[in-house]
Design brief:
Length: about 60
Amino acid sequence: METKEHLKEERDKIVKGLEEAYRKLVEFKKANNSPLVVVRNGKIVEIDPNDVPPTILYKRSQD
């Protein structure tokens, strides 16, 4: 199925983009000594950028 393969390729491109955006965000935050602001359990918290991994891999479904 050509459509299914096309959707898989598009999904993989999106996931790679998300991984690259995360990497750039962490790099930027470290360079500016600025905390990452996230929501955990419904509360806004600040995280030291040195306490997070520099890259992350999103899980991809097995097709």
